UniProtKB/TrEMBL annotation:
Pfam families: GatB_N, GatB_Yqey. It comes from Desulfurivibrio alkaliphilus (strain DSM 19089 / UNIQEM U267 / AHT2). Residues 328-476 form the Asn/Gln amidotransferase domain. The lineage of its organism: Bacteria, Pseudomonadati, Thermodesulfobacteriota, Desulfobulbia, Desulfobulbales. PANTHER family: GLUTAMYL-TRNA GLN AMIDOTRANSFERASE SUBUNIT B MITOCHONDRIAL AND PROKARYOTIC PET112-RELATED, GLUTAMYL-TRNA(GLN) AMIDOTRANSFERASE SUBUNIT B, MITOCHONDRIAL. This is Aspartyl/glutamyl-tRNA(Asn/Gln) amidotransferase subunit B. NCBIfam families: gatB, PRK05477.1-2, PRK05477.1-4, PRK05477.1-5. Keywords: ATP-binding, Ligase, Nucleotide-binding, Protein biosynthesis, Transferase. The gene is gatB. Heterotrimer of A, B and C subunits. Transmembrane segments: none annotated.
Length: 479
């Protein structure tokens, strides 16, 4: 029996507002436990929530960026459940009237056609607190700093058909929220986190199989690994004639396994009802157009521009636009060094080799500024240094943050392009290697590499390689 995988994702993006969604408490990460709290976010009797307008604006931005329909009238609801880190005993969220619905993202995997993945809904809600467990004592501590921090939940359609597609969708959504500057995307701090629903069904069957939900995944790699594990587990069960039990699972990244957490809740378990303390949100046309006018160039549009206007290959454009910061870095360097492909090659090889992480390149931490990288490549084009020396200079720039001219001067790395100086060494090398000279005359042109290598060794890599080849060619033909 051939089985088909069906995956849907629920992503929570923490918004970059200075204050919480329904009160004025700070959202700053890392403060002492329970210091970012007040009677409103602690759910004290008699308090009333007041909606943060910035949260609505950010939600509209994401809705427009993902081709969603913005509901001009949307309603907050109470989602009832009882956890120690939920002080009110309910979470203020949205249910049947979310702020946005029916959008999509396009994903691309190498060697496969692009696919449009539907977005069911985007809704606003408040975050819960955090439980801190004591490994040595049978007790837990509650930190309510995160309670009331604004979130957008983005729920996909069950359109994803592999763990690799799920990871591609997450990366695309991650890039969009960072381009919009509404979420910092820090997965380690929980600012961008994902729950995944996965089920398997016989290929060709329309009815979905029994799904499980995976939680506690804090990187794109972990999401893909967790889904691959659960995909194998469910396939083994079904092919063995056993049933999949609907359950919520926690992913243990260290052990590479999932563990049952609790039975999976359904919407009716939460007993949703409209929050009586909050009036419906009304979004008029002028507000919608104001937000639309302020949208930045998004990843897909920027990628298309890089291809059509700069002549970059599809792959280069995809990599460079994977984050707003990386694309900005490229364009700032391009302003001083307009050879787009050469610049792209350097960024994707030398720069990303030392800066790349699981969530992409942290360009903000790069000690080599765009103008300095542009200057380095200009020095190569002008013959001041060779391409090989440029890599040495770049490593020193990454280490010290110095500009390329300073590094080249201090390390005495200026390329030797004086014909007279090099010609003397060339003739000495030819005179010292008569056997290789005869090989060259006998048609073994590859021996030229030996001669140039000898020259580079004697000049400590500073000889102009193009000039070196010309001199050896001329001298050997006349020898």
């Amino acid at each position: 029996m051939e089985l088909e995988t069906v995956i849907g994702l629920e992503v929570h993006a923490q918004l970059k507002t200075k204050s919480k969604i329904f009160c004025g408490c700070s959202t700053e990460f890392g403060r002492p436990p329970n210091s970012n709290t007040c009677p409103v976010c602690l759910g004290m009797p008699g308090v009333l929530p007041v909606l943060n307008r910035r949260v609505v604006e950010f939600a509209i931005k994401l809705a427009l960026a993902t081709d969603c329909t913005v509901n001009r009238r949307n309603i907050f609801a109470r989602k009832n459940y009882f956890y120690p880190d939920l002080p009110k005993g309910y979470q203020i969220s949205q249910f049947d009237r979310p702020i946005a619905e029916h959008g999509a993202l396009t994903i691309e995997l190498e060697g496969a056609p692009s696919r449009r993945i539907g977005i069911t809904r985007i809704h606003m809600e408040e975050d819960a607190g955090k439980l801190i467990h004591d490994e040595h004592e049978p007790q837990s501590y509650v930190d309510l700093n995160r309670t009331g921090v604004p979130l957008l939940e983005i729920v996909s359609e069950p359109d994803l058909r592999s763990p690799a597609e799920a990871a591609a969708y997450l990366r695309k959504l991650h890039a969009i929220v960072r381009y919009l500057d509404i979420c910092d995307g820090n997965m380690q701090e929980g600012s961008f986190r994902c729950d995944a629903n996965i089920s398997l069904r016989p290929k060709g069957q329309e009815e979905f199989g029994t799904r499980t939900e995976l939680k506690n995944m804090n990187s794109f790699r972990n999401v893909q690994k967790a889904l691959e594990y659960e995909e194998r587990r469910q396939r083994d069960l079904l092919l063995d004639g056993r049933e999949v039990v609907q359950v919520t699972l926690l992913w243990d990244a260290d052990k590479g396994v999932s563990q049952a957490m609790r039975s999976k809740e359904e919407a009716h378990d939460y007993r949703y009802f409209p929050d009586p303390d909050l009036v419906p949100v009304e979004i008029d046309e002028s507000w919608l157009e104001e937000v639309r006018a302020g949208l930045p160039e998004l990843p897909l549009a920027r990628k298309t521009r890089f291809i059509e206007q700069l002549g970059l290959p599809d792959y280069d454009a995809e990599v460079l636009t994977s984050s707003r910061e990386l694309a900005d870095y490229f364009e700032q360097a391009l302003a001083a060094y307009p050879a787009a492909k050469k610049l792209s090659n350097w960024i994707m090889t030398e720069l990303m080799r030392v800066m790349k992480g699981d969530e992409g390149i942290d360009i903000a931490a790069c000690p080599v500024s765009p103008p300095h990288l542009a200057r380095l490549l200009t020095m190569v084009d002008e013959g001041m240094i060779s391409g090989k020396i440029a890599k040495t200079v770049f490593e020193e720039m990454m280490s010290s943050g110095a500009d390329p001219d300073t590094v080249v001067k201090e390390k005495n790395l200026v390329q030797v392009s004086d014909e007279g100086e090099l010609l003397t060494i060339v003739r000495e090398i030819i005179a010292a290697n008569p056997e290789q000279v005869e090989q060259f005359k006998g048609g073994k042109s590859k021996v030229m590499g030996f001669f140039v290598g000898q020259l580079m060794q004697q000049t400590k890599g500073k000889a102009n390689p193009q000039l070196a080849n010309q001199l050896f060619s001329r001298e050997l033909q006349g020898a």
